[in-house]
Automatic annotation (TrEMBL):
<feature type="transmembrane region" description="Helical">
    <location>
        <begin position="72"/>
        <end position="94"/>
    </location>
</feature>
<dbReference type="InterPro" id="IPR036259">
    <property type="entry name" value="MFS_trans_sf"/>
</dbReference>
<keyword id="KW-1133">Transmembrane helix</keyword>
<keyword id="KW-0472">Membrane</keyword>
<keyword id="KW-0812">Transmembrane</keyword>
<feature type="transmembrane region" description="Helical">
    <location>
        <begin position="40"/>
        <end position="60"/>
    </location>
</feature>
<keyword id="KW-0813">Transport</keyword>
<feature type="transmembrane region" description="Helical">
    <location>
        <begin position="197"/>
        <end position="219"/>
    </location>
</feature>
<dbReference type="GO" id="GO:0016020">
    <property type="term" value="C:membrane"/>
</dbReference>
<protein>
    <recommendedName>
        <fullName>Major facilitator superfamily (MFS) profile domain-containing protein</fullName>
    </recommendedName>
</protein>
<dbReference type="InterPro" id="IPR044770">
    <property type="entry name" value="MFS_spinster-like"/>
</dbReference>
<feature type="transmembrane region" description="Helical">
    <location>
        <begin position="100"/>
        <end position="125"/>
    </location>
</feature>
Length: 257
């Protein structure tokens, strides 16, 4: 959910934020949003491919030696992404190409989670319940993640524009009604969105701590799922429906005889 929250916010506001920051740099005042969006999209696609493949590779290689490594990889990835994303937010108005490089690293480490989280869900849930678990995971992930994060960032940014412009909400409302409000300065536009995007860094760190907490129980949950699966595959064991019936406590050969 935290990964989807950040991915949704960056996908919606990332190009606009970078454009506002680059326009504050001397010589880049006329940079267009379409140009920034194209570069941002290419970086995002490449980072997604690299991140998903790298996450799967690390999980496959390290899990035989460290059974609880999957959520640890996710935690390291998302917390590392928070650091690089913070660097992006702070450096956009000063650096050009470095900004896109930092975004690439931030998104690669963020995308380490996708394949691993899916794998975790599959091996801690028995096969008969996996479809339901996957559906619930997708619902919660997007409902509390990328479905609302762009709107939340926009609301925070709009509120900060009022504060940074030195006006009150009442004055802003009156000016809007009378159509006499002057647009915020480029600096106010940039800094209001900059401060709003700091929320994504906090969410990433929060998600990292949740992954570390998951690492404490991942092995036990996997073993529980495996034991339950072994019981389902053994016809000599009673199912939960007939477990209380005395004659079902005997083995299958005894019952048939």
């Amino acid at each position: 959910t935290c990964v989807a929250f950040v991915a949704g916010a960056l996908g919606w506001w990332g190009p606009k934020f970078i454009q506002l920051g680059l326009k504050l740099q001397p010589g880049s005042e006329n940079i267009s949003l379409s140009d920034v969006s194209t570069k941002f999209g290419l970086v995002t696609v490449l980072a997604g491919i690299v991140g998903v493949l790298l996450g799967s590779f690390l999980s496959t290689r390290l899990r035989p030696r460290f059974p609880s490594i999957d959520p640890v990889i996710c935690a390291i990835g998302i917390i590392t992404s928070a650091g690089f994303l913070l660097a992006v937010i702070l450096s956009t108005q000063y650096l050009y190409y470095t900004t896109f490089f930092l975004i690439f690293i931030a998104e690669v480490t963020l995308n380490l989670n996708w394949s691993i989280v899916t794998d975790i869900l599959l091996y801690v849930v028995t096969p008969t319940r996996r479809s339901t678990a996957e559906a619930l995971q997708i619902l919660v992930c997007h409902a509390f993640g990328d479905a609302g994060s762009p709107y939340l960032i926009g609301v925070i940014s709009d509120a900060l524009k009022i504060v940074l412009s030195g006006t009150t909400a009442a004055v802003a409302l009156t000016s809007t009604i009378s159509n006499t409000a002057s647009p915020p300065s480029p600096e106010v536009d940039f800094h209001s969105l900059q401060y709003a995007l700091f929320t994504t860094c906090f969410v990433e760190v929060l998600g990292g701590f949740f992954f570390l907490f998951t690492a404490l129980y991942i092995v036990r949950d996997k073993q529980n799922a495996e034991r339950e699966l072994e019981g389902q595959d053994n016809p000599a064991l009673p199912t939960h429906i007939y477990a209380d019936e005395p004659h079902m406590s005997r083995s299958v050969p005894d019952i048939t005889t």
